[in-house]
Amino acid sequence: MDTYSRTNLHILTSIDYDKMSAADKAKESYPRADHDYGLSWIRAEGKGRVFYESPRARRKHLRDQADCWNMSWLASNTRSAT
To answer: What's the pTM?
Structure first.
C-alpha cells in the first residue's frame, strides 16, 4: 500500500507535473513513478483527520504574494480540510 496515494489522501493542491520544466524535473531527488505530488492534503487518522501542507509550497506562496501577511489562503485550506 502506498501511504501517499490518492486512495489514502484527499489532495487539496498538487503539482501539475506536465507543466514543469525539464530542468525542474531533473532536480527531483526521489521522483515518483506516477508523477503525482500532493502539496496539501487531508487523511483520516483514528477518529479524526490530519491536514498537511508542504513547507516549500507555503514559502513559495508567501514569497510570491505582495501582501504576505494576508493568511486567508491558510484559512481557506483549513476550512476545506474540516
So the answer is: 0.58
Domain ranges (residues) in the chain = 10-81
Distance between CA atoms of 69 and 59, rounded to whole angstroms? 12
Nearest CA to 37 out of 12, 61, 63, 73 is that of 12
Matching residue, cell 486567508: 72
For 2, the grid coordinates are 502506498
pLDDT of residue 39: 85
Identify the residue whose cell numbers are 489514502.
8
* Cα 21 from chain centre: 19
DSSP 21: -
Per the listing, cell 483549513 goes with 78
**Backbone conformation region of residue 35, classed left if phi is above 0, alpha if psi is from -120 to 50, else beta:** left
